[in-house]
Amino acid sequence: MGLAVTTTLTLMGMVNSVFQTSPDTSYLKAMDVWLVTCFTFTFVVLGEFCTVIGLSQYGPLDSSSSCDGDKSVKVSGEGFVERSSGRNSKAGRRERKIQLAAKLETW
What is the pLDDT along the chain (107 residues), one digit of tens a residue? Predict the structure, then answer.
């Protein structure tokens, strides 16, 4: 994330210096195409990063997924074992949907 933001800021500086030093033309220059392409790839990377972070925190919200992922096992102080529902279990997805709906209602 930091690298993409730094790249964007560097590209802004490059665009500014290129536009100040190059002559005004009515046609598209190769440098313009190059800078737009760089911006496009940078924003695609930022979008991809945000999507991955969002999906890793909330997971897919559809209930058709049958992946029961990681079932974690917690050992309590008395020595017995409790099983908690994994992140991808139906109960975990349902709980995340309820939490997300509650957050959206408060906005």
Answer: 788 888 888 988 988 998 899 888 899 999 889 988 988 898 898 889 888 888 888 766 655 544 545 444 444 454 444 445 555 567 777 787 888 788 777 76
| Total-model pTM | 0.48
3-class SS of residue 101: helix
Dihedral-angle region of residue 59 (phi above 0 means left; psi in -120 to 50 means alpha; beta otherwise): left
> What CA dihedral angle connects 2, 35, 18 and 49, to 10 degrees?
-10
| Residue for token pair 């536009």 | 19
Distances (CA, A) of 57 to 12, 16, 53, 96: 31, 37, 6, 10
Question: Cα Rg for the chain, rounded, in angstroms?
Answer: 24
What are the residue boundaries of the structural domains of the chain, listed by start?
A: 2-58, 73-106
Which residues, in sequence order, are CB contacts of 83 under 8 Å at separation 6+?
71, 72, 73, 74
